[in-house]
């Protein structure tokens, strides 16, 4: 064994004096101050857009070789970007915003204040420029057809791809979301439906649980575009219908939870230990998270007919959502839809100021 001595070529300056979540550090620009004796190495650095910064995790330690990562899985440091590593070296790609003398202002660095910088390299910018261009073209296409990517995934019956995107609004993966994806994808394909969020395609959901988010995402019928109708009867069921009333209703079979559990036999045992008995063993928790994730994606693999029944229906269709003018409440001065205002002698009052009975939709349903 031999040791390698290194001389820092500069130092990081930002507002993070202590270790913090890497995304928080990345979100703020940092300045890298290059020591005078290395100034010549900065020649024409302004022409480079992306830099790889090699730095030292000076407040970190290297007493363990495997950890639970920021994302919750248990990994060795060579299989992660953990700051707790044998040589305490960090490598991060950043964007160079500008150079001012020996100071480099950069975006995307996850090193804390006073981290010694060991080296700086130009990233392969020609490669990145290509990517940027593709992204630019993709954006122009999406401006014309925002659901293009979702439509493609439906056409390919790629439910895993749909679930990954749907989780961007749902926030987590779960069998309920998977069931919404499955039912909605089936219905969209069956009806050969396209959705433009203009109420020509309507989804009627009979639940407001996780399944409803899968339905909203895949069908494009949402709370905000008035193409989602909530029929609060507490069933894992939904109907997709064109405005002519010809639709398809899909209902989860009784016993669907048992079918999902049977497909993931390790889950019950781990759930019992980690959730029911609150066992906090790091490895056990990591294993539980992994099995839960597999269970959510595994749900997508269960044959449709084992989880659902499907039938053609004639749905009752509401008229297009009306446009109401706004009036101003004489008490609070806030603008309110005229359909939700009470007219009285001095003008209008909103429901809140009038102490009217207001219906809520929350986790309990409508009440
Ligand atoms: Zn969920
Ligand atoms: Zn008011």
Distance between the termini: 71 Å
Q: Please indicate the percent range of residues in DSSP E strands (runs of 2 or more).
A: 25-35%
User: Largest beta sheet, briefly?
Assistant: 6 strands, antiparallel, barrel
CATH topology of the largest domain: 60s Ribosomal Protein L30, Chain: A
For the record, what CATH class of the largest domain applies?
Alpha Beta
Mean pLDDT: 91
What is the structural class?
Answer: alpha+beta
Helix-strand pattern? EHEEEEEEEHHHHEHEEEHHHHEEEEEEE
Separate helix tally = 10
Total DSSP E strands = 19
CATH architecture of the largest domain, by name, is: 2-Layer Sandwich
Shape: globular
Task: State the helicity in percent bands.
Answer: 25-40%
The small molecules bound here are:
zinc ion
Low-confidence stretches: none
Q: Give the domain tally.
A: 3
Computed over alpha carbons, the radius of gyration is 28 Å
- Numbering strands along the chain, what is their spatial order in the largest sheet? 1-2-7-6-3-8
Written description of the protein model:
With 367 residues, this protein is an alpha+beta fold. It has three domains: 10-124, YaeB-like (Elongation Factor Tu (Ef-tu), domain 3), CATH 2.40.30; 145-321, 60s Ribosomal Protein L30, Chain: A (2-Layer Sandwich), CATH 3.30.1330.130; 326-362, no CATH class. It has ten helices and 19 strands. It has helices at residues 22-26, 125-144, 148-155, 159-170, 175-190, 210-219, 256-262, 265-276, 282-299, 304-307; strands at residues 10-13, 30-34, 50-56, 66-68, 74-76, 89-100, 103-107, 116-122, 201-205, 228-230, 237-242, 246-252, 308-314, 326-328, 335-337, 341-344, 347-350, 361-362, 365-366. β6 (89-100) and β7 form a beta hairpin. α4 crosses α6. It is globular. One zinc ion binds next to β17.
């Amino acid at each position: 064994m031999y040791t390698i001595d290194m001389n820092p070529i500069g130092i990081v300056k930002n507002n993070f004096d202590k270790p913090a979540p890497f995304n928080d550090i990345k979100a703020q620009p940092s300045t890298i101050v290059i020591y005078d004796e290395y100034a010549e190495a900065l020649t024409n650095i302004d022409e480079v857009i992306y830099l790889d910064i090699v730095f030292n995790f000076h407040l970190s330690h290297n007493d363990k070789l495997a950890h639970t990562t920021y994302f919750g899985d248990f990994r060795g440091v060579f299989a992660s970007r953990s700051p707790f590593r044998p040589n305490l070296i960090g490598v991060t790609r950043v964007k160079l915003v500008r150079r001012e003398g020996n100071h480099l202002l950069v975006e995307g660095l996850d090193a804390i204040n006073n981290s010694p910088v060991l080296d700086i390299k130009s990233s392969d910018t020609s490669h990145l420029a290509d990517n940027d261009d593709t992204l630019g073209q993709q954006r122009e296409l999406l401006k014309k057809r925002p659901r293009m990517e979702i439509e493609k995934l439906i056409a390919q019956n790629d439910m895993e791809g749909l679930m990954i995107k749907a989780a961007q609004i749902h926030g987590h993966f779960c069998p309920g979301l998977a069931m919404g994806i499955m039912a909605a994808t089936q219905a969209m394909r069956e009806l050969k439906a396209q959705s433009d969020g203009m109420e020509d395609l309507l989804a009627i959901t009979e639940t407001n649980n996780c399944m409803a988010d899968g339905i909203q995402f895949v069908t494009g019928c949402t709370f905000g575009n008035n193409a989602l109708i909530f029929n609060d009867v507490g069933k894992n069921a939904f109907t997709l219908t064109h405005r002519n009333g010809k639709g398809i209703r899909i209902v989860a079979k009784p016993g669907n939870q048992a079918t999902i559990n049977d497909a993931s036999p390790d889950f019950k045992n781990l759930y019992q230990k980690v959730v029911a008995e609150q066992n906090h063993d790091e490895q056990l928790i990591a294993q539980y998270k992994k099995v839960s994730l597999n269970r959510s994606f595994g749900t997508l693999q269960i044959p449709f007919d084992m989880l659902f029944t499907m039938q053609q229906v004639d749905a009752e269709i509401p008229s297009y959502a009306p446009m109401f003018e706004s009036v101003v409440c004489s008490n609070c001065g806030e603008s309110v839809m005229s359909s939700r205002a009470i007219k009285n002698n001095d003008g209008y009052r909103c429901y809140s100021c009038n102490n009217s009975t207001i219906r809520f939709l929350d986790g309990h349903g409508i009440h």
